[in-house]
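Final report, closing paragraph on structural work. Over the funding period we assembled a curated collection of sequence-structure pairs, and we close with a single example.
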Amino acid sequence: MLDLPNFLSSKVRQKVFRLYFSQTNRRYYLRELERLLDEPVGNIRRELLRWSNAGLYPREKVGNLTYYSLNTLFPLYEE
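Its predicted structure, as stored:
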């Protein structure tokens, strides 16, 4: 079981999770997330890379943009 208070201690992580878990079929690129979440792109990128490596946010490169989407098969998704 996941320790949610510690897991969601980061404000940026909370915003990213809220956005992706409310729109599970969407994919976003970093600058788009920066505008939507009103957070610095570096902080967003750090969270996405951390969870992308874990398998929660798969990356897809399209031209010069890297899109991140939610992996609905990830075990956390069901919680």
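The mean pLDDT is 86. DSSP finds five helices and three strands in the chain. We thank the funder for supporting this effort.
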